[in-house]
């Protein structure tokens, strides 16, 4: 399959996933000519989405360091 066509299909599938579609087989099956190429990419996208949703946007250590600095400044004042 042509690379640009595959990219468009992937983009459409990612849009569907962002709207809550979770059946990756159904998404891939909507594009029979690209199913075998697109399905593994959807798995990767799903895993990356799960990781980013589970990870805090900032490391927890950053919050602990800021808290300690604020407490130190407050007690010194």
Question: What can be said about this structure in brief?
Answer:
The chain is mainly α. It has four helices and no strands. The chain has one domain (3-76).
Number of strands: 0
- Describe the sheet with the most strands: none
Tally of structural domains: 1
Low-pLDDT stretches:
none
Strand content: under 5%
Average pLDDT value? 85
Distance between the termini: 67 Å
Helix share bin: over 70%
H-E order: HHHH
Radius of gyration: 21 Å
**Which geometry do the CA atoms define?**
rod-shaped
Estimated structural class:
mainly alpha
**Helical segment count:** 4
If you had to describe this structure to a student in words, what would you say it looks like?
The structure is a single chain. By secondary structure, the protein is an all-alpha fold. Helix 1 crosses helix 3 (35-54). The chain has 4 helices and no strands. It starts with a helix and ends with a helix. It has one domain (3-76). The model has no long low-confidence stretch (mean pLDDT 85). The chain is rod-shaped. The chain has helices at 3-18, 24-29, 35-54, 60-76.
Give keywords.
single chain, 77 residues, 4 helices, 0% strand
Secondary-structure blueprint:
Layout: H1 3-18, H2 24-29, H3 35-54, H4 60-76
């Amino acid at each position: 399959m042509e690379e640009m066509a595959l990219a468009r299909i992937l983009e459409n599938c990612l849009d569907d996933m962002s709207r809550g579609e979770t059946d990756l087989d159904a998404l891939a099956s909507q594009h029979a000519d690209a199913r075998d190429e697109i399905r593994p990419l959807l798995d990767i996208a799903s895993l990356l989405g799960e990781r980013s949703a589970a990870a805090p946007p900032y490391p927890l250590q950053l919050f602990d360091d800021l808290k300690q600095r604020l407490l130190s400044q407050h007690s010194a004042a």
